């Protein structure tokens, strides 16, 4: 139970309707989209409506030694918003105004609770887009997506969230409000604080305002799907496309297990005998699209791919339906879905896929892998059952091996989901002791009381 | 089924908490409270099953805040039976008390047809006293727990079923159709029932109308009283099973869904009734779907109107009528059809939801009202009496000059 006086202070700070204190509702702020997280009920959840209110909450929590757990829609896959050990969940959902759309500066400024898709809808009439498009584009908040530095399907050509955030307003641990960056393309004033807070997973401060770069919407696009009987041939096609100096907007790969699941679920017309399917989309000016599409088609065929083209938007949707069905189709196979995001340099994507298939066989697990072949970001999806402890033990072994393999190939623990709670114990594998210590010093410098999102990113100290 | 939340353990476990339901939930879209979205409701269920929560009045209240609009069911990547799970959660949460008096009274009334039948003239007199006429209906003089900014429909002098024979037999009948009228057509909009009968007779269908039919029971199931809903399902299955009809037609997606989906689930433990309910389920058609299956009676009278169509949740996502009603409307000579930008978005009415959460319901309806106005249509058609009641009331309250009618009523006007 929370101290009554503290509760009253929180109510005064953000208004009674914006403080959740009933146990029945607090249970709902104990989780995000990550499986196997410890149940951790917060003492209260607050939904402030301004930076000043956020600062007031931070001050109340600091004085009363309560942790602050920033939260958006709670859709992350790393346990990033789980309120370990109680404390106060600070959800930015009710700070959801688009503050400015500035087409002349190709910029937009939003509050953290704005849903990503809403920003895109608002930018569309100006012929602009905000390119980062994680799978949760229709549900995730801008605040959460900046805090996690989310990626998406268009990483190869358009980059990820950090490539678009140019300015932030942040409430710091001492309750002060700082602004970094702005609308300008160029800004080398002091350290790159914008990038530090982007992807900090809410461990350094609470983001209360975000300025992002927008880019012109592509005039045209074309999608192609190719199926391969050999995994290696699909990998060769990816390499050859890059070697031809074509940068597709997306280059998605589905493995055999995923293809089978998609066919059983959605009957999308994928060949069941295929070892891999590549879905490539090029976009840009119509002339460029025509040229790039012709080159990609030729390469896909020369690599042994069986082609399926999309002549119009309807056919394009049909091709993409197969890719969109990947996660739902896999998720329906078993009660629990463990979705990883191991990432390797693009040239080693096939090697990584083969290694994951080998790990699945060795641990007798069902793993379907799909992902962004263009940027080396794979989603090995382990279909399992949380209730089966023996199987979960094998899942944990497999996950560990997937990470070790990715790192051995020069990759990373996490391409786009973040470290959070789920991967913190693996952090030393990638950063080494020196790297972990440096991260820890930054955390201590900005958040000496360990106020913000404690227990995330950094492994517990011995 | 529905009585024991434990029956939904597998579904609740299947929810991977991805939150995709947030994007489509009309309630969450307004409140952005996790308790209001399917993911949150299913996690409440999980906490209850795992003993982390007890059934309390607060839990019951949280479980009630849902339109059962089925939007999350379509959006769920894991195929979780979201709405059925929420209904079971309501039943489980109610065990700790906490269903408000007004809702308990509604449950009691719907379960007892004589109360409703005798209550109608009383309610009609009360409406004349406590409401003043406005916008073709009535506006409450005092809040009375109702929304004073909207118009409520004028109640009819007698029920639809009281005003019609048990069997309407055209001179040459090719088939026999039972009509399950439902509460909205029986007590509020008898014109809908009359239109259905006229349309069927014009297609040479004999229409059987068992006078003892009552509420389909879905409102009771939805409010967390599966036991009474089961008794009502059993009496209806026994009543309609004997009729030997070719089709069982409904004019309300919720009634149709009750017959098709919920009766068999509710009656699962009684083999005979279960088999009969399954046999009847295959005969159930929404009136629009059945009209599309039957040969047209000849030339239609033209209607020179600009018309738009709102798709009721339980007709579209429930009975899956698809484009059938729209195609029927478009086929009427003279009609200028102007589609809504988002026809399947819930209107926020959701049976009694608009009575008990009028502010929230109004906020949910706002985009729908704007969508309707933007079409420039003067006639709004929908296949559901509850949606009609909601949209008619809110639009008339805003001074919208158009008319709202049931699909059957529009089509009946084209039938000579």
Strand fraction band of chain A?
15-25%
Helix coverage percent of residues of chain B? 40-55%
Number of helices, counting only DSSP H or I runs of 4 residues or more of chain B? 21
Broad structural category of chain B: alpha/beta
Instruction: Report, as a whole number of angstroms, the end-to-end distance of chain B.
Output: 46 Å
The CATH first-level class of the largest domain in chain A comes to Alpha Beta
Question: What's the CATH architecture of the largest domain in chain A?
Answer: 2-Layer Sandwich
Largest sheet: number of strands, sense, barrel closure of chain A: 7 strands, antiparallel
Using the coordinates shown, work out and report the CATH topology of the largest domain in chain A: Uridine Diphospho-n-acetylenolpyruvylglucosamine Reductase, domain 3
Residue ranges of chain A: pLDDT <50 for 5 or more in a row? Answer: none
Question: Tally of extended strands of chain A?
Answer: 18
Number of strands of chain B: 11
Strand order of the largest sheet of chain A: 15-12-14-13-17-18-16
Q: Provide the number of structural domains of chain A.
A: 4
Shape of chain A: globular
Report the CATH architecture of the domain at 299-413 in chain B. 3-Layer(aba) Sandwich
Description:
The complex is a heterodimer of chains A (462) and B (416). Chain A has 462 residues and is α+β, with helices and mostly antiparallel strands. Chain A folds into four domains: 4-91, 2-Layer Sandwich (Uridine Diphospho-n-acetylenolpyruvylglucosamine Reductase, domain 2); 98-216, Uridine Diphospho-n-acetylenolpyruvylglucosamine Reductase, domain 3 (2-Layer Sandwich), CATH 3.30.465.10; 220-328, Alpha-Beta Plaits; 333-408, Alpha-Beta Plaits (2-Layer Sandwich). Chain A contains 15 helices and 18 strands. Chain A has helices spanning 4-14, 23-26, 51-63, 116-123, 142-148, 155-158, 193-197, 231-243, 256-266, 286-302, 313-324, 326-331, 349-362, 389-408, 427-446; strands spanning 19-20, 44-46, 68-71, 88-91, 98-102, 107-110, 128-129, 165-171, 177-181, 206-213, 215-216, 220-228, 250-255, 276-284, 306-309, 336-339, 366-372, 377-384. In chain A, the strands form four sheets. Chain A has a seven-stranded antiparallel β-sheet, with helices on both faces. Chain A has a five-stranded antiparallel β-sheet with strand order 5-6-10-8-9. In chain A, strand 5 (98-102) and strand 6 form a beta hairpin. The two termini of chain A are 30 Å apart. With 416 residues, chain B is of the alpha/beta class. Among the domains of chain B are: 5-94, Fumarate Reductase Iron-sulfur Protein, Chain B, domain 2 (Orthogonal Bundle), CATH 1.10.1060; 299-413, Rossmann fold, CATH 3.40.50. Chain B is 50% helix and 10% strand. In chain B, helix 4 runs antiparallel to helix 6 and helix 13 packs antiparallel against helix 14 (271-281). Chain A binds chain B through residues 20, 22-25, 27-29, 31-35, 39, 47, 73-75, 93-94, 96, 113, 115, 117, 136, 138-139, 327-328, 331-332, 335-337, 386-387, and chain B through 10, 13-14, 16-20, 22-23, 32-35, 40, 43-44, 47, 52-53, 56, 58-59, 62, 77-79.
């Amino acid at each position: 139970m929370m101290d009554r006086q503290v509760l009253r202070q929180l109510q005064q700070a953000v208004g009674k309707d914006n403080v959740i204190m009933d146990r029945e509702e607090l249970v709902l702020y104990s989780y995000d989209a990550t499986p196997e997280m410890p149940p951790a009920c917060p003492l209260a959840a607050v939904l402030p409506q301004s930076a000043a209110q956020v600062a007031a909450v931070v001050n109340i929590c600091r004085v009363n030694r309560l942790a602050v757990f920033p939260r958006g829609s709670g859709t992350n896959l790393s346990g990033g918003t789980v309120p370990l050990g109680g404390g106060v969940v600070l959800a930015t959902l009710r700070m959801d105004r688009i503050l400015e759309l500035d087409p002349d500066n190709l910029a937009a400024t939003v509050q953290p609770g704005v849903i990503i898709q809403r920003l895109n809808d608002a930018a569309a009439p100006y012929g602009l887009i905000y390119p980062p498009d994680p799978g949760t584009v229709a549900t995730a908040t801008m605040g959460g997506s900046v805090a996690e530095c989310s990626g998406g399907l268009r990483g190869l050509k358009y980059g990820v969230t950090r490539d678009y955030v140019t300015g932030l307003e942040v409430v710091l641990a001492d309750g002060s409000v700082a602004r970094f960056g702005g609308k300008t393309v160029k800004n080398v004033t002091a350290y790159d604080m914008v990038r530090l807070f982007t992807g900090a997973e809410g461990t350094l401060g609470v983001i209360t305002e975000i300025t992002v770069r927008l880019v012109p919407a592509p005039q045209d696009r074309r999608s192609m799907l190719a199926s391969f009987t050999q995994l290696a041939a699909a990998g060769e096609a990816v390499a050859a496309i890059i070697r031809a100096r074509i940068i597709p907007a997306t280059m998605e790969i589905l493995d055999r297990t995923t293809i089978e699941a998609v066919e059983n679920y959605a009957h999308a017309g994928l060949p069941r005998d295929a070892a891999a399917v590549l879905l490539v989309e090029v976009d840009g000016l119509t002339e460029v699209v025509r040229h790039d599409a012709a080159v990609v088609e030729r390469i896909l065929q020369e690599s042994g791919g069986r082609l399926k083209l999309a002549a119009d938007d309807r056919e394009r949707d049909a091709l993409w339906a197969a890719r969109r069905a990947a996660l739902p189709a896999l998720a329906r196979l078993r009660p629990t879905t463990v979705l990883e995001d191991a990432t390797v340099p693009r040239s080693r994507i096939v090697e990584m896929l083969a290694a994951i298939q080998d790990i699945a066989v060795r641990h007798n697990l069902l793993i379907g892998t799909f992902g962004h072949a263009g940027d080396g970001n794979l989603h090995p999806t382990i279909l399992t059952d949380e209730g089966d402890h023996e199987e979960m033990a094998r899942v944990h072994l497999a996950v560990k091996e997937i990470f070790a393999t990715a790192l051995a190939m020069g990759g990373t623990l996490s391409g786009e989901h973040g470290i959070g709670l789920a991967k913190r114990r693996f952090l030393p594998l990638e950063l080494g002791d020196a790297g972990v210590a440096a991260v820890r010093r930054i955390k201590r410098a900005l958040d000496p009381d360990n106020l913000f999102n404690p227990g995330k990113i950094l492994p517990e100290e011995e | 089924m529905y009585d024991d939340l434990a029956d939904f353990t597998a579904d609740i476990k299947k929810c991977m908490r991805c939150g995709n339901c947030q994007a489509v939930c009309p309630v969450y879209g307004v409140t952005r409270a996790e308790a209001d979205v399917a993911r949150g409701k299913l996690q409440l269920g999980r906490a209850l099953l795992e003993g982390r929560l007890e059934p309390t009045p607060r839990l019951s209240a949280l479980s009630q805040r849902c339109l059962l609009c089925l939007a999350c069911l379509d959006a769920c990547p894991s195929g979780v039976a979201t709405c059925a799970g929420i209904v079971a959660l309501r039943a489980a949460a109610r065990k700790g008390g906490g269903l408000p008096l007004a809702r308990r009274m509604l449950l009691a009334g719907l379960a007892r047809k004589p109360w409703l039948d005798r209550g109608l003239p009383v309610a009609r007199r009360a409406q004349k006293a406590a409401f003043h006429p406005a916008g073709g209906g009535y506006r409450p003089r005092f809040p009375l727990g109702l929304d004073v900014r909207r118009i409520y429909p004028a109640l009819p002098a007698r029920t639809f079923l009281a005003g019609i024979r048990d069997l309407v037999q055209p001179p040459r009948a090719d088939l026999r159709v039972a009509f399950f009228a439902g509460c909205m057509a029986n007590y509020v909009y008898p014109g809908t029932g009359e239109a259905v009968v006229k349309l069927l007779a014009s297609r040479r269908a004999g229409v059987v109308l068992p006078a003892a039919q009552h509420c389909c029971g879905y409102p009771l199931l939805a409010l967390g009283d599966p036991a009474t809903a089961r008794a009502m399902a059993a009496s209806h299955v026994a009543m309609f099973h004997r009729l030997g009809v070719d089709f069982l037609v409904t004019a309300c997606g919720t009634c149709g869904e009750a017959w098709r989906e919920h009766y068999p689930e509710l009656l699962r433990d009684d083999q005979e009734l279960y088999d009969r309910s399954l046999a009847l389920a295959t005969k159930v058609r929404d009136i629009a779907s059945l009209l599309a299956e039957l040969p047209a009676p000849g030339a239609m009278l033209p209607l020179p109107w600009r018309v738009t169509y709102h798709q009721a949740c339980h007709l579209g996502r429930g009975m899956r009528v698809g484009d059938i009603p729209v195609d029927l409307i478009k086929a009427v000579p003279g009609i200028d059809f102007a589609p809504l930008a988002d026809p399947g978005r819930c209107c926020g009415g959701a049976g009694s939801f608009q009575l008990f959460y009028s502010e929230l319901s109004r906020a949910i309806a706002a985009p729908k009202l704007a969508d309707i106005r933007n079409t420039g249509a003067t006639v709004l058609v929908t296949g559901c009496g509850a949606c009609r009641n909601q949209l008619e009331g809110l639009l008339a309250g805003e001074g919208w000059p158009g008319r709202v009618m049931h699909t059957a009523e529009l089509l009946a006007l084209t039938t000579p």
